[in-house]
Amino acid sequence: MSSDSENVIQHVEETLLAYCRQQGLFKSGDRVIAACSGGADSMALLLFLLRRRRDLEIEVLATHVNHGIRGVNAVADANFVTAFCRKNGVELFLYDALREGVEIPQQPSEEWARGLRYGWFDRLAIQEEAFIATAHTMSDQVETVLFRMARGTGLHGLAGIPPRRGYYVRPCLCLTRSDTEAYCAALGQNYVQDETNEQNTYARNRIRHDAIPALQYANPSAEVAIARLCRQIRDLDQWLTGEAAALLQAATVENGYEVSVLRKADGPVLDAALHSLVSPVRDAEEKYITLLRFLIQRGEGALQLTPEVTYKVKDGVLLRLTPRGVRPPPAPPQPFSEGRFLLPGGYFVEFRRVKYEEFLKNQPIFKKDLNCCADCAKIQKNLLLRTRLPGDFFRPAGRHVRKTLKKYYNELGIPQDERSLLPLLADGSEVLWLWGSGFAEGVAPDSYTNEVWTVHTEKAEED
After folding, report:
1. What's the pLDDT band for 203 if we cut at 50, 70, 90?
2. Distance (Å, rounded) from C-alpha 279 to C-alpha 309?
3. Who wins on pLDDT, 37 or 322?
4. Rounded Cα distance, 44 and 58, in Å
5. What is the rounded (10 degree) CA torsion for 222, 228, 230, 234?
6. Which residues contact 442 (CB under 8 A, 6 or more apart)?
7. Which of 222, 114, 99, 225 is nearest to 168 (CA)?
8. The domain containing residue 188 runs over which residues?
9. Is residue 375 part of a domain?
10. Please, what is the Cα angle at 84 between 86 and 42, to 5 degrees?
11. In degrees rounded to 5, what are phi and psi of residue 361?
12. Cβ–Cβ < 8 Å for 39, 70
């Protein structure tokens, strides 16, 4: 191996390791399934995870999807990935749409193919209790943002592809497509070429072939510059998300939100709050945010988002109507912090940070329910206070088992209507505190603890 190849490998792997640690993508013991198409990006991802799995302290698996739309070429790609995994001792989960009996459209769109992939990834992540690592790069980030700008998007859309969302992680967002190709070349690893990527049938391909080269003519580092802007917008979007959550909390009344409080908010904060109400129901396109804002300013009217959910302003309150009647929306995610939180459905939560000495003085209070306390040092800073999402899992204290939240709720016999409103603290898809069950396994105070998180909860009585 030449010194140039060694330098490329070292640079790429150190960049990826630093990014994974900076973004908190993995924890010791995680099972990680790499989504591998066989192309340069996904092969670079799988190679990196395999070569540095000891540094990351993870178990590496892989999955490949044959959409059933490229005939023998798709079969060849699947065989390529299968042979690589067999040679390297990687467990592979292969999904073949035709064998699964999927009806293939006459002219399948990018959205259809994406829906097929992610439907399989969702099921696989839950089935294997694992994270899905996708090979999105900085180049994909730029294409996505330009595509959204062309279609019409807001601040949230300009934030681009997040490094982490639920059980999805994207370690390669710090690399360009040329970086992944150079990494594969340096390791002597060949990869497949999807011939559809060269066709201008899809809008994203036209952006890749025409728009980005034009931008690079103006600035050779255009991809890096746009990706940097995405990170800055993402930071701003996260701040706005926190402000929006505080606004909704201040506006919370029985079954909805007080319109007079919402009206007083600054425009960007109100828009972010409305985005958080729309996004769990459907794609939060700008037109729905605009229409919902209009209802609030007018003080009357209704907006049907789906056959299941309608927002209506009545008697000064923004209500969420469903076929089962008025149902408050789940609390939007917000950064975890010390303080008091009143959440939809009448759930009150107070988090306090106390010195270990104070905890010891009051320990008899906690002896019966020590899972209501946690060592501050064992709780990551990027926790979100939110409600459940698909793929969430929980390790009940003292049980030494890991359960999907769905199975755990079934075990506890929690009614379906309550599950979408129950507050929890989560790091990605790992739930570290759950209403009614306390903190998870492994975060309890011990003799090395300096500070302790305590939780007080109350539930308002329903009329």
Report:
1. confident
2. 12
3. 37
4. 17
5. 180
6. 378, 395
7. 114
8. 3-228
9. yes
10. 130
11. -65, -35
12. no
How does pLDDT run across 135-185, given as a tens digit for each residue? 999 999 999 999 988 887 878 888 899 998 888 999 999 999 999 999 999
Q: Which residue's structure tokens are 């209009």? A: 294
Is residue 291 included in any domain, yes or no?
A: yes
Task: Name the CA dihedral angle for 237, 241, 242, 243, rounded to a multiple of 10 degrees.
Answer: 90
Predicted local confidence at residue 318, as pLDDT:
92
Q: Of 272, 301, 326, which residue is a domain's last?
A: 326
- Cα dist from 101 to 96, 97, 98, 114, whole Å: 9, 6, 5, 17
Residues 109, 197: one domain?
yes
Q: Is the pLDDT of residue 307 over 70?
A: yes
Name the residue type at position 305. Answer: L
Q: How many domains does the chain have?
A: 3
CB atoms within 10 A of CB 382: 14
Label residue 463 by pLDDT band (50, 70, 90). very low
Please check whether residues 405 and 437 belong to one and the same domain.
yes
Query: Taking the C-alpha atoms of 77, 109, 131 and 78 in order, what is their torsion angle to the nearest 10 degrees?
Result: -10
Same domain, 374 and 395: yes
Residues 322 and 342 in one domain: no
| Mean pLDDT value across the chain | 87
Are 418 and 295 in the same domain? no
Q: Show the tokens assigned to 228.
A: 């940097």
**What contacts 196, CB < 8 A, 6 or more positions away?**
70, 202, 205
How far apart, in Å, are the Cα atoms of 104 and each of 35, 67, 75? Answer: 21, 8, 16
The pTM score is 0.78
The answer to whether residues 199 and 166 belong to one domain is yes
State the DSSP code for 305. Answer: S
Q: Flag whether 119 is in a domain.
A: yes
Residue 82, both tokens: 């299968």
- CB-based contacts of 94, cutoff 8 Å, min separation 6: 63, 64, 66, 78, 81, 82
pLDDT of residue 195: 66
Return the bridge partners of 459, or none. 347
Residue type, 364: P
Q: How far apart are CA 214 and CA 219, in angstroms?
A: 9
Residue that finishes a domain, picked among 180, 210, 228: 228
Closest C-alpha to 176, from 200, 204, 149, 142: 142
Higher pLDDT, 132 or 404: 132
Which residue(s) pair with 132 in the sheet? 33, 168
Give residue 461's pLDDT: 62
Residue 112 lies in a domain: yes
Give the whole-angstrom CA distance, residue 392 versus residue 381.
18
CA angle, corner 301, sides to 325 and 240, nearest 5? 85
pLDDT band at 80 (very low <50, low <70, confident <90, very high): very high
